[in-house]
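Reopening this ticket.

The earlier resolution said the output was attached, but the attachment link was broken on my side. Pasting everything inline this time so it's all in one place.
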Amino acid sequence: MERRAEADGLGAGERGILALERRGFSGPGAKERAIREELDLSPVRYYQLLNALLDDPRALAHDPVTVNRLRRVRAARRGER
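Inline output:
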């Protein structure tokens, strides 16, 4: 995954993760397939990077709607535990 920083401080890979999260996926396995094919990451590594990205203020500045939605989902899942 390319790490070149853009104007907002996020690298291309980080921007790609947020872009993938904005999309909807049609069937089982579609998201995992897109993660592997488009980002060249394993799904486990993708979710590790995504979780760290949700705590990054640069990600919030870049895409506040997606980051806040995912933070709410994460908080709800933690609350279920």
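Reporter confirms the inline version is readable. The two ends are 32 Å apart (CA to CA). The chain has a mean pLDDT of 90.
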